[in-house]
Amino acid sequence: MFPYNLYLFFVFVAIYVPSLKCGDVVHLSDSESADKLEAVPSLSNAAVSSPVFKPAVDTVFSFSVLSSFPEDLEVSDYCSDLLHIFGQRYVAYVNCLVPAARPVKVCQSCYSTYGSVVEIYKNISSDQMGPGNETCRDSLLRSDRLMLVYQLYSNLESLWEDSNCAQCVTGHFESLTNDTLYFMSTLNQTLTCFEKYQQGNHTELCKNCKSAYGTLNVLYSQMEKNSTLCIDIEDAMNMTRRLWSKNFNCSFPREENVPVIAVSSFMLFLPIIFYLSSFLHSEQKKRKLIHPRRAKSNTSLMNIQDKLS
Amino acid sequence: MEDDITSEEDPIRGRPKEIPHNEKLLSLKYESLDYDNIENQLFLEEERRMSHMGFRCLEISRWVICGLIGILTGLIACFIDIMVEKLAGCKYQVIKENIEKFTEVGGLSISLILWAVLNCAFVLVGGVMVAFFEPIAAGSGIPQIKCYLNGVKIPRVVRLKTLVVKVFGVICSVAGGLAVGKEGPMIHSGAVVAAGVSQGRSTSLKRDLKVRKNKQNEYEGASFWNQMLTWRIFFASMISTFTLNFFLSIYHGKPGDLSNPGLINFGRFESDSVAYYYYEIPLFMCMGALGGLLGALFNALNYWLTIFRIRYVHRPCLQVMEALLVAAVTAAVSFTMIYFSNDCQPLGPEHNEEYPLQLFCADGEYNSMATAFFNTPERSVRSLFHNQPGSYNPLTLGLFTLTYFFLACWTYGLAVSAGVFIPSLLIGAAWGRLCGILLASFTPTSPVGIWADPGKYALIGAAAQLGGIVRMTLSLTVIMVEATGNVTYGLPIMLVLMIAKIVGDYFEEGLYDIHIKLQSVPFLHWEAPATSHWLTAREVMSSPVTCFNRIEKVGTIVDVLSNTSTNHNGFPVVVQVLDSDEPAKLCGLILRSQLIVLLKHKVFVELARSRLSQRKLQLKDFRDAYPRFPPIQSIHVSQDERECMMDLTEFMNPTPYTVPQDTSLPRVFKLFRALGLRHLVVADDVNRVIGLVTRKDLARYHLGKHGLEELQLAQT
């Protein structure tokens, strides 16, 4: 629980720091923040000017943030509105992601919230002038070394890419693709079958659910080939396979030891026969020695040894 | 004592003694190459005629030829690469589907038989080609090229037919699943191309290009000659790498991407896994010593096997049968290993196994023994280097090392074209990785990132094993660094190779040297045997020498040349001072090939007198005959012509190298080695010919276990 809390804490700090300068202060303890998360106001009724949270360490903070810069250097209202919306959507997405971590359902359950994050980020980073002829891109995204908004967003983006969710979701984050839905329904069939036969003998299960499991497997490998897999499907398939192979022990048994050993030892035996027979029957290759013409006195190895001794 | 010797020798002299083949023989069938320029009058004339521009053109044409050689070699390498990939891909796909089918319904022994039959079919094609059409194309070809560079003329080693057989043979044997690599044959084919392209050029050029066959990576021989030559060789090999890359990039569908590294490529190590620390260097050195030991064992086993093969398995049909058996057993052993392996691993995110086998593993997991066995050896090496920690368990690696060691040892020396590079890398990578895993498991307290990566130990192990088997330190360091694209490991690899060589040399020679010896090749090493200074040219030389007079009767020449028992190649030319009892003095040296050309063109004194208009023989005529001089039997000399006289003055080499008879063996040796001589005349103080030293006279001395030993000449 602790790291989770801490992470959210930082997220909150990040999001609410800009609004803190307004001076409204709400005390909130660490442990409460987690609970409060559920109650983050929905996007429509976001009251921009009334920040809800303030970290516990208020005394230090209030000093630093209360001092404000001259008008022209500050972020315009429009931009801080955008920033605020971004924050809320961000929280909503992260909020959705964490419970979906195990078993992995990040694509199925959070694609729409991700879509909204993408949308607001697009607004922030677009060239289009907002009211008052200004863009928020420069002021929000790259006016400091940290580039927090950009980094936060790119973290989410890389998560999205790693999870391959794009393969399972239609282009504009409207819904899951048909393939995914079909896979899920097949998966459900298999799991129901598993549940049905779970009690009692597993051999029964292996026999009866084989067709359902087989269809699922085929479907999966087909999707693998078309590369329409996302992490949800991969994880679900992994779990099912583990159930099937490890829990129910339905993988193929090693039954043919005898024929395999027989055939391979026969093959191992062949070379022995071959070498023996060629040793016994093939005539040995002899070399004819030739005597080179040498000066008379020193011809053979014998003499070398004489000389040495 | 004297009597003993003579009584022992007499029966030997009477009839030729026959002994079984062993390593202490020198074969008569090998001749030397003529590197030495013959500075006869024709040569001088031609040089005088040649303009300054001519020399420039010669220089440019050398570069062009280098480029050409590079391109052709690259093309051949590319062809081999793609064919192997295609054929092996098809084979493994078929077997994989079959295994998958039979895992479910039973009958896996049928898959085993299918695998064995497919292997045998490929090997049969390759084996028949090699055994029946071109036996010289067997093996890796590196020993032969080494001899060729040493100056020994191995018959047919650089012919087009050899090239073709070699290329297709190696494709068959790698696709046939033998424990072999394709690098040695690629080097050989590069050599053939180099020799082929350079033929028919000027003589001086030829000599250069002879050396150039150390194509891809063998810089060792080349650096001995001059700097420009080394540079040109370097150029040629870069060109060939470039060509290879260029065409492979097209093949892989990314034309123009030239960074796809060369011939042997094991992929780049990632930067965080290449770090090594000073305290690892002793470990690496221990691994080097282990590699040397294993290499020596490998070589010793292969030595006995090769002797057996030469003595008993010498008929082509037997050789093909042996190759088939090896192919079948390789399949059987691999299959059994895979079948009984319990090591199941999930595929990693960036797995590069193309044919994962599941067999009895849980769904989603794959047999990790199959990643090592069910693949072309080169790919297996790559996965041993790069797969993340934990993708093999130690038992799998141990068993794999053991079986592959014996398989590779058994395979090398078969009548198929096959190299030993990749198998030894594979063995080394397997036990190196095993070392890495064991180290990591014995020292759980040490910082994880350092011991955890077994890939670098696989690399060091591979280097150690390769160094222990082939013992070529310089070129191997270059190859290993090139192949992994990693200079960080330059020093460790060098150390490991050195130690492996030292340890290995203590027990047994390098594999290539063993094979050179067993072929009875008169190979001259860098130095004369250490304790041979007391031997003088008088004892080394052959004597008496067959000499010709400067103006010699055609009949005599024909008789000497046709005498099959003395297959001499160079004849000192002597001049007899008329009307005196003084013995004949040396005035030149003439080669058999020159004499044959002279006989063919009938350059007789009498004919020249009668037909003044006859065209003068030029150097070009000699060059045209290169490299296949007709045998003496094909030249017809009539009875009348036998009485004619031939004047050799113009054609002989008037300044042959001579040594006094008291020159020590090491001095003679140095002359031979440095100048690339073929004949060295031994003359006395008044310039009379008393003997002739040839390569075989020098090569027969070698340092054995009991001091200096002498090899015997034999007909093979």
Describe the fold and architecture.
The complex is a heterodimer of chains A (309) and B (716). The termini of chain A are far apart. Chain A is an all-alpha fold. Among the domains of chain A are: 95 residues; 70 residues. Chain A contains 13 helices and 1 strand, in the order ααααααααααααβα. In chain A, 62% of the residues lie in helices and 2% in strands. With 716 residues, chain B is mostly helical. Chain B is 56% helix and 9% strand. In chain B, strands 7-9-10 form a 3-stranded mixed beta sheet. A 3-stranded mixed beta sheet of chain B has the order 12-13-14. In chain B, strands 2-17 form a two-stranded parallel ribbon. In chain B, strand 15 and strand 16 form a beta hairpin. The longest helix of chain B is centred in the N-terminal third of the chain and has 54 residues. Chain B starts with a helix and ends with a strand. The chains are: A mainly alpha (309), B mainly alpha (716). Chain A: It comes from Neolamprologus brichardi (Fairy cichlid). Chain A: Keywords: Membrane, Signal, Transmembrane, Transmembrane helix. Chain A: One of its GO terms (cellular component) is cytosol.
Quick overview of this protein structure:
With 309 residues, chain A is mostly helical.
**Which pair of chains has the greatest number of interface residues, and how are they split between the two chains?**
A-B, 50 and 71 residues
What radius of gyration of chain A results from the CA coordinates?
Answer: 37 Å
Distance between the termini of chain B: 33 Å
Shape of chain B: elongated
Described by the principal axes of the CA atoms, the overall outline of chain A is: elongated
Q: Spell the H/E element sequence of chain A.
A: HHHHHHHHHHHHEH
Give the strand tally of chain B: 17
Organism (chain B): Neolamprologus brichardi
Domain CBS (chain B): 652-710
Subcellular location (chain B): Membrane
Protein name (chain B): Chloride channel protein
